[in-house]
Design goal:
The complex is a heterodimer of chains A (724) and B (225). In chain A, 34% of the residues lie in helices and 24% in strands. With 724 residues, chain A is of the alpha+beta class. Chain A has a domain at 535-717: PurM-like C-terminal domain (Phosphoribosyl-aminoimidazole Synthetase, Chain A, domain 2, Alpha-Beta Complex), CATH 3.90.650.10. Chain A has a 7-stranded mixed β-sheet with strand order 8-10-7-11-9-12-13. In chain A, helix 5 (74-90) runs parallel beside helix 6 and helix 5 packs parallel to helix 8 (215-230). The longest helix of chain A is centred in the first third of the chain and has 21 residues, at 111-131. By secondary structure, chain B is of the alpha/beta class. Chain B has one domain (7-222): Rossmann fold (3-Layer(aba) Sandwich). Chain B contains 5 helices and 11 strands; from the N terminus they run βαββαβαββββαβββα. In chain B, the strands form 2 sheets. A 9-stranded mixed β-sheet of chain B has the order 2-1-3-4-11-10-9-6-7, with helices on both faces. Chain B is globular, with a radius of gyration of 16 Å. Classes of the chains: A alpha+beta (724), B alpha/beta (225). At the A-B interface, helix 6 and helix 8 of A face helix 1 and strand 6 of B.
Chain lengths: 724, 225
């Protein structure tokens, strides 16, 4: 800039060039993601990605991390993560209609991890329930790799008419810049910088860097902004997230090719004595920045007043291309908006880490075969990684809005669009252990898992948002994991035709115990032409035939839940990906549901086939019996003689579906030739029976599976799906 | 009311979040939904009022404690005292208790955590405008979603409620610790009913059930339409 920057200007660069805002380590790698598709209306670069649904409707969606704040102040960290992602969706002009949360914590035998888990879930509920957006899905995993560094990734989906899409681009010299929402305080100053550093013992002292959420203010902000959009009072809209006014104003200016003058003394404050730089980078929550034509300002401010929130003109769009900070008519800082929004890029060398050879060297013959498979099944189902999530999602309002067609607990959330037959499905998935063992394969498998989850509710998968949660990219292992996971995810997104339309990066997830597992999480959205044609995992009718459908991929203990839960090992390179075969099988299952042949489907995932069967039985309140001698074929074939491999081994691209007798012929016709299938048993009774291997009653399964994850003893209630 | 549509008002406080769901359910019944904005002391001549769920005024201080002072509450209280049918759902139930249109209070749930689930309830009396379409003793499955749904009333009040048949809904599996498994009560005049579960959330077969519509429809039976 040709001179020494002053303190205010340095503060602006400090936050804008942090990894959280500037993506300086990840940007070159992110270019690898495919971004284009026939349904994509908005790819990366805006507040959220947008895809077309049909009938003039579109979905805006994005996922974002709030890991570091949640590590030091879990309730507010998680709550403001939810608040922030809702505003990203709102900034596109969409009404937020669904929330999901992808969470990871250390094992629950440590008090600190139990505290983080409990408070993060409370924070998500506390914010989401009050703001009136249903929390309809998500996932939770526990591993020592996340001790002290939990992952809190929140996703929001919003619904909008295609013609009402809003953008954040500032235009029109002389237009007013209006700050909407809460007053500005000192909370969250340098939050973005804090989020881009490793967590140390000192981090605890950075609680003041964590913002405090007010869902009531957010609810009023949502209704106010939607009303402003309905009355066509806005030129553009942007949320205030990391780096506050600085980030919003410079991004709005840079994307519009204009400048913005902020008259900093006009920003309403809740504290006295704030310096201009503090006002500029404060991350006080529940605020939005809008550009309004001068003649519409009065009406816009009147709308804000009706909703009881602040609305103040704090600046103007200018022709000069700079973000200028003005205090009482005196310019106190000037930086080029382009320059600020364009952090430097670090490209690094990709070097394969030594640890990979060590962990991939796995000989299943070293694993002893258990004697009692009933006990193993019960132990697996009671493990926090496989146990019912009911005690979590029962703390979230998942029905407000009356659009939730399939309640939490299924493979994906299914939502309707009122006034149409259409609907959408959404899922979040992550495979940290797999990505640790094989970053490229794990990255691909993460996308494949999301694709499977949408397929087995019957939705056509459309597009992806992601959160890239990694350790330090400044260390060779961390950079390799980041680069390879992105490569694997990109290959899968290409093979599946599901472009990445939005996302976020969270690096430096390390504590003194080391880095987290490399954990890209994927949020995938799919669409229904007729949302009435969907499937759920629960068994529905006595006598239904249970059919396994597979891509013929290998079944393996490598990197499986079984290997970790029962044998305490995290080893091996899980097989795959087999992207083309996996896509073919998934698409087939989706078609079976769409054609009305199948209404019960579940993918074989963590825990293998028998865990999938147990989940279907528990969800439907009906047992299942395998055909006599049938399972022996799998043991001899895919299991290579080992029952534990056949029962608990994991295989990509495999599903279980059920049909009544009268649709069996239809199913066989539809399955055709190229995909393998096997009629493995029949729904009925009150136990899960695999002759020669497993015989456990539903009540024993339920007792293991339905234990409260927060240790509250009590009623094991229900067990059957509330909605079919 | 004659042959026209029944006009059912839905109050909207800052922070209400089931208002749109209630308006949608009324529309599905084929009746006329009327939004009643908190700042206006005007019930717009409606035939019945639903006070919907949500977090009015952020539940700050206490759920319902601030909403009772909103401008719309004056005419609403008069309407209730004059026998007009009012249904408070969830936060609406809390508001009606705070406004002393209904007895008792809703405390924090046993286990101190939010509960969102579907529960079985029994209709204990058909003698209110909101249950007139039922047989007493009929069972229903309704969604609940609340943090403060643990109904409490002091001994004497509770005894009166039970004696006078003013416990309108009772949980068959109590999700929150409510005394006597109470899920809903009515006032002495029986026209004001509070219910913790959400009938408007089960008003559409597309979402798996429309059992809740029967509660909303009852008001037409009760109102003699």
């Amino acid at each position: 800039m040709g001179r020494e920057p002053n303190y205010l200007e340095l503060s602006l660069f400090s936050v804008m060039w942090s990894e959280h805002c500037g993506y300086k380590n990840s940007r070159p790698l992110l270019r690898r993601f495919p971004n284009e598709g026939s349904r994509v209306l908005q790819g990366p670069g805006e507040n959220a990605g947008v895809v077309e649904v049909g009938d003039g409707w579109a979905l805006a969606f994005k996922m974002e991390s709030h890991n570091h704040p949640s590590a030091v102040e879990p309730y507010e960290g998680a709550a403001t993560g939810v608040g922030g992602i809702i505003r990203d969706i709102l900034a596109m002009g969409a009404r937020p209609v669904a929330l999901l949360d992808s969470l990871r914590f250390g094992p629950l035998d440590e008090e600190r991890n139990r505290y983080l888990f409990r408070e993060v879930v409370r924070g998500i509920g506390g914010y989401g329930n009050a703001v009136g957006v249903p929390t309809v899905g998500g996932e939770v995993e526990f591993s020592a790799a996340y001790s002290g560094n939990p992952l809190v990734n929140a996703m929001c989906v919003g619904l909008i008419r295609v013609e009402d899409l809003m953008r954040s681009r500032a235009t029109g010299e002389g237009n007013a810049v209006v700050l909407l929402g809460s007053k500005t305080g000192r909370d969250g100053i340098h939050g973005a910088t804090f989020a881009s550093d490793e967590l140390t013992e000192e981090s605890e002292s950075k609680r003041s860097n964590v913002q405090v959420g007010d869902p009531f203010a957010e609810k009023m902000l949502i209704e106010c902004c939607l009303e402003l959009l309905k009355r066509d009072l806005l030129v553009s809209l942007q949320d205030l997230g990391a780096a506050g006014i600085t980030s919003s104003a410079s991004e709005m200016a840079a994307s519009g090719g204009v400048g913005i003058d902020i008259e900093v003394e006009k920003v309403p404050r809740r504290e006295t004595g704030m310096e201009p730089w503090e006002v500029m980078i404060s991350e006080s929550q529940e605020r939005m920045l809008a550009v309004v034509e001068p003649e519409k300002v009065d009406e816009a401010l009147a709308v804000a007043e009706r909703y009881g929130i602040g609305g103040t003109v704090v600046g103007r769009v200018a022709g000069h291309g700079d973000l200028r900070v003005i205090e009482n008519s005196e310019v106190v800082g000037t930086v080029s908006a382009d320059h600020l929004a364009d952090a430097p890029i670090y490209e690094r060398e990709v070097v394969r880490p030594a640890y990979l050879d060590e962990v991939q060297n796995f000989d299943p013959e070293e694993i002893p075969q258990p004697e009692d498979y009933n006990e193993v099944l019960l132990e697996m189902l009671s493990h926090p990684n496989l146990r019912s999530r009911r005690s979590i999602y029962n703390q979230y309002d998942h029905q407000v809005g009356t659009d939730t067609v399939v309640l939490p607990g299924a493979d994906a959330a299914v939502m309707r669009i009122k006034g149409t037959k259409r609907g959408f499905a959404v899922t979040t998935d992550g495979r940290g252990r797999h990505c640790f063992l094989d970053p490229r394969g794990g990255g691909a498998a993460t996308v494949a898992e999301a694709y499977r989850n949408l397929s087995c509710v019957g939705a056509e998968p459309v597009a992806v948002t992601d959160c890239l949660n990694f350790g330090s990219p400044e260390k060779p292992d961390g950079y390799y994991q980041l680069a390879e996971c992105i490569e694997g995810m990109s290959e899968a997104c290409e093979a599946f035709g599901t472009p990445v339309v939005s996302g976020n990066v969270s690096l430096f997830n390390e504590t003194d115990r080391g880095p987290i597992y490399p954990t890209p999480t994927v949020g995938m959205v799919g669409v229904f032409e007729d949302v009435g044609r969907h499937a759920t995992p629960g068994f529905k009718r006595e006598g239904d035939m249970v059919v396994a459908i597979g891509a013929g991929t290998p079944v393996s203990l490598a990197g499986s839940e079984y290997l970790e839960i029962i044998h305490g090992r995290v080893l091996g390179r899980p097989p795959g990906p087999y992207l083309d075969a996996e896509r073919e099988t998934s698409d087939l299952v989706c078609r079976l549901i769409r054609d009305g042949i199948v209404d019960t489907a579940h993918d074989i995932s963590g825990g293998g086939e028998v865990v999938a069967v147990a989940e279907m039985a528990l969800a439907g309140g009906l047992g299942m019996e395998y055909v006599e001698g049938g399972f022996g074929r799998k043991v001899a074939g895919q299991g290579a003689g080992r029952a534990d491999v056949a029962l608990f081994g994991e295989e990509p691209g495999a599903f279980l579906v059920t049909v009544p007798w009268e649709r069996w012929a239809g199913l066989q016709d539809a399955l055709g030739g190229s995909v393998g299938y096997d009629q493995i048993g029949t729904v009925g009774g009150d136990s899960v029976k695999i002759p020669g291997y497993i015989d456990v009653t539903l009540s024993e399964l339920r007792e293991a599976y339905e234990q409260d994850l927060f240790g509250i003893p009590g009623e094991v209630v229900g067990g059957s799906e509330a909605v079919g | 009311m004659g042959g026209g549509l029944v006009r059912i008002g839905v109050t909207v406080f800052p922070g209400s979040n089931c208002d749109r769901d209630a308006l949608h359910a009324i529309e599905r019944m084929g009746e006329e939904p009327v939004e009643l904005w908190h700042a206006e002391a005007d019930l717009k001549g409606v035939d019945a009022v639903i006070v919907p769920g949500g977090f009015s005024y952020g539940d700050y201080l206490r759920p319902g404690a601030i909403a009772r002072f909103a401008n719309v509450m004056g005419p609403l209280e008069d309407f209730g005292r004059e026998g007009g049918p009012i249904l408070g759902v969830c936060n609406g139930f809390q508001v009606l208790c705070e406004a002393h249109l209904l007895p008792g209070a809703l405390l924090q749930n046993r286990h101190m955590r939010f509960v969102c689930d579907r529960v079985r309830v029994r209709v204990e009396t058909a003698n209110t405008p909101w249950t007139a379409g039922f047989e007493g003793g009929e069972g229903l499955t309704l969604p609940v979603a609340h943090n403060e749904g643990n109904y409490f009333a002091a001994g004497e009040t509770l005894a009166r409620l039970e004696d006078e048949g003013r416990v309108v809904f009772r949980y068959l599996d109590n999700p929150n610790g409510s005394v006597n498994d109470i899920a809903g009560v009515c006032n002495e005049g029986r026209n004001v009913v509070g219910i913790m579960p959400h009938p408007e959330r089960v008003s559409d077969p597309a979402l798996g059930s429309d059992e809740g519509l029967k509660i909303l429809r009852s008001v037409m039976v009760g109102a003699g339409v």
